[in-house]
Amino acid sequence: MIELKGINKIYDDGFQALKDIDLTFEEGKINVLIGPSGCGKTTTMKLLNRLTDYTDGDILIDDQNMKQINPFELRRQMGYVIQNIGLFPHMSIFDNVATVPKLLKWNKHKIRERVDELLNMVNLDPETYRNRYPAELSGGQQQRIGVIRALAAEPSTILMDEPFSALDPISREQLQDELTKLQQEINKTIIFVTHDMDEAIKIADQIILMKDGEIVQKGAPQEILANPANEFVTEFIGEDRLENVLPSIQDMIQSDYPSISLNTTVEQSIQLLSRYQISDIPVVDENGAFNGIVNLFDLLNNKRTDLKTFIHDTLPTITENMDSHRLMQIFHEHKSTVYPIQTKEGNLAGVVERKQLVHLLHQFYMNKSGDSEWSS
Amino acid sequence: MDFITGLTQYMIENRSELLALTIEHIVMVAYGMALALLVGIPLGIIAARYQKLAPIIISATNILQLIPSLAMLAILTLYMGLGFQTMVIGLFFYSLMPIVRNTYVGIKEVDDSVIEAGRGSGMTPLQLLGKIQFPLSIPFLMAGLRVASVIAVAVACLGPYIGAEALGKEIISGISLQSDVKIYAGAIPATLLALIADFMLGKLETRSKQRMA
Ligand SMILES: Nc1ncnc2c1ncn2[C@@H]1O[C@H](COP(=O)(O)OP(=O)(O)OP(=O)(O)O)[C@@H](O)[C@H]1O
Ligand SMILES: [Mg+2]
């Protein structure tokens, strides 16, 4: 765990790049620093491996003051992907990747295996690329080498300063997946700088949004999206994205919501509804197939005894893997206290209640001025 | 035509003497260069590392080079007497500037992001110098060496004035005897030496840059 306590950084020319930063990077989490150019992201990174010194405050690494740790040892245990890639132009790809293992005096065989493993990981064939020089690679390939050079000695903490900026969308996605996988498997603490909010949302456990050397907001991606602290955050996140953070139907579904079978009597149904304090209940046949909904008022106002005659099925079919925006649209057009969700075979999978959706709307729109376009 | 036959004949007749002088010339230049590298590289590194010392070191070597060659050699004889060593020291002084300056520039030119990557990998300043900065400055150093050796081949021709015999011996005795043949017999190998040095070190320079682009 890395803790920054009241960190200030004033550069030699008097410019204050960081103002009173309090920040915790939990072990085994992906922390994403994001913010406009010049807000102090790179500066924060460089404090962590002591490439720059802070002016005052404290940085604790596993409760030990960082100044007590030998800076060279510290850096060898902290992978660093620098913003401008910075491959060593006079060294082969092999030697570039092997930099830290060599400093740590790993044996040759182990280094060789590790380099090949890493090259394979980023889809560069070791036979082809091992002996090339950086100038003989494309920009995206160089960036991948920059990333694996930082991973080579299996550091416990990895600092990555816009590591995927030169990659095409496909390799970028691939490396993001690789990174989250890596982090889950071996529990690395990752501190990642990006300008790309989509990237941040995708990989972050914690997002730290900075502006002018200060932290504006930090928290889990969903937290920030759901409750942007101020105008700036909303603007930075982008309005579109706020609308796109609806949880999926699968995440909202209540599979333990009660249902009744076709052969239940009207009397039993009313009892059940009042026991659960609900007004609508889905009906399924003996195979679990969804048949429709019955409503408490209909049941109470009529003397009919056959439950089947009360079943109505006026809602459009909603399936589990449907886009939740479509559900919002249905919610908007059809009033109902519950929205039954079906599996693709037509069985009842559960329901989403109207009040859940109302609550979501409140949450997302509390911080926004207004008009909703769920249907986009 | 007569002149060329005469010259060829003279050169063939005196080939062992000329060869010995050429070798002497090469050895003198080589010693001067070796000394210049030995002293110049560390000076260049120190200048690059301690920014405050840089102007002092660079201007001192610069001044050495500005002293007219004959004057410098004459002054050296005051302290070292006549002979081979005096010439070697003269060549060393002359070559120092291109070597020091190019080492300095070569190290300074290394891309900041490369340095940062090296530091970020946990290299000590010495490792950074040995593994990154110095290797990357070699193409510059090669260019300096090339300039220095061409100058040194020329300056070495003044050898006979301070008792260091080399190809200059033929040239200078050619002047006093008013013998075109002797002058050319010294001048041609000396020029060839300069050309070869320039060409070979140029090749080395290109090779040291290869693949780094
Ligand atoms: N060595 C330095 N001396 C003076 N000021 C500096 C120095 N390095 C950075 N700064 C200033 O500190 C501020 C923060 O810089 P930093 O590099 O941390 O920004 P950043 O958030 O990484 O920006 P970007 O997204 O453009 O990389 C900038 O205003 C920058 O000009
Ligand atoms: Mg930056």
From TrEMBL, chain A:
Q: Which residues cross the membrane?
A: none
Recorded catalytic activity of this chain's protein? a quaternary ammonium(out) + ATP + H2O = a quaternary ammonium(in) + ADP + phosphate + H(+)
CDD domains xref list = CBS_pair_SF
Which Gene Ontology terms of cellular component type are present? plasma membrane
Where, subcellularly, is it found? Answer: Cell inner membrane
E.C. no: 7.6.2.9
InterPro entries xref list? AAA+_ATPase (IPR003593), ABC_transporter-like_ATP-bd (IPR003439), ABC_transporter-like_CS (IPR017871), CBS_dom (IPR000644), CBS_dom_sf (IPR046342), Gly-betaine_transp_ATP-bd (IPR005892), P-loop_NTPase (IPR027417)
Keyword line: ATP-binding, CBS domain, Cell inner membrane, Cell membrane, Membrane, Nucleotide-binding, Repeat, Transport
Q: Which domain of life is it from?
A: Bacteria
Q: Which residues form the ABC transporter domain?
A: 2-237
- Any Gene Ontology biological process: glycine betaine transport
- Any idea where the CBS domain is? 252-309, 310-369
Q: Name one GO molecular function term.
A: ATP hydrolysis activity
Primary location: membrane
Q: State if Hydrolase is listed as a keyword.
A: no
Membrane topology summary:
Peripheral membrane protein
Could you tell me which NCBIfam families the record lists for this protein? proV (TIGR01186)
Protein family per UniProt? Belongs to the ABC transporter superfamily.
Record's subunit section: The complex is probably composed of two ATP-binding proteins, two transmembrane proteins and a solute-binding protein. The complex is composed of two ATP-binding proteins (OpuCA), two transmembrane proteins (OpuCB and OpuCD) and a solute-binding protein (OpuCC).
Protein name, entry field = Quaternary amine transport ATP-binding protein
Q: Which organism is it from?
A: Lentibacillus salicampi
